[in-house]
Amino acid sequence: MTTSIHSVFAAAESGISDTIKDTLNALSVPEYFVSITVVLLIIGLLTYRQWTRPMVAVTLSLLFIAFYVWSALDENFFKIITKPDNIPITMMIVFTALVTWVAFRQAAINDARLEKGEPLIESGADDKVLVWPDLVYTELIAMVLCTVVLVVWAIVLKAPLEPPANPTNIPNPSKAPWYFLGLQELLVYFDPWIAGVLLPSLIIVGLIALPFIDKNPRGNGYYTFKQRPFVISTFMFGWMIMWIVLIVLGTFLRGPNWNIFGPYETWDPHRPAALLNINISDVFWVITPDWLGFEWWKPGLPTKAALGGYMPAFLIREAPGIVLLSGYFFVLPVLLAKTIFRKIYHEIGFTRFCVFWLLMSWMFIVPIKMVLRWMFNLKYFVAVTEYFVNI
User: Domain check: are 285 and 247 in the same one?
Assistant: First the structure.
């Protein structure tokens, strides 16, 4: 009787565990995974005063540790997190959560003090220290500790060295170093010249230009969120979603043939991944007339021969995408400057607003393109394959 009861409980526990794993595997596809993280980020920004409280933060940390340990009992999950290349990513997740909590905890305390008319945490603080002996001793101790950690790490964790490159034996999946995995994930949605050159350059330019665009003097020299919610939210979206989340996605969920695998799934290199990529030109010239039943207008994609050779075919073929992108980059900012961003436009002026929208438009075109790819398998807005210009 006792044995049968234990068997029933074991079967029930196994069933619940399998249900949880199946659910998490199903939620690991990019459209769910990224969307859930965006929702969690919004909730975190709105409730930063609650979750940064020490007891709440400790409780969340213990729940995360328990979940991670429980997940590590799964063979497939354990194989993923124990790969030498992936161990630093786990550390990155922990340290990212830690520094984010510290920053928003300080911001929550300062915002509460400002509302009560009390001095800030940073006010009156004496940050001056002597170079000798205080700074030198601190740097020496830090150097020794870092050296010890690196030596122990090099001894315990084997370096993931692979054999010399062989064009007949290509690793599957072929992944970039962890710090480029976010950019490699963008290659799914953009051409290399955008994902590997333009977007990283705009990230650097944006970081340089941010102090010149935002002239708000509040928040300089102290932690706050209430006084600069838009700028901080934009930065957190770009950093957490478009960098950290994409690295995690590329590390733990991208498997053979660059397919998506759940954290508890076996990486099967033979899984089929059939995708019918379409462009805006296909939607306008082929799919829409067919869907609307326009039997009298199904010209297909315009060709040079069909146009009599008087003009390049791509000008007509890609006209819908060109009009759409022109409206996004040039018409939409005018409408936003007169409505939602009116206050920002009057505060920073025309020139700064142009730079601001240039950076914002390219940042937001990434999630827009990702959503359209997930929902409609959209590849390009404009595909000028004749000159290798695809957006």
Answer: no
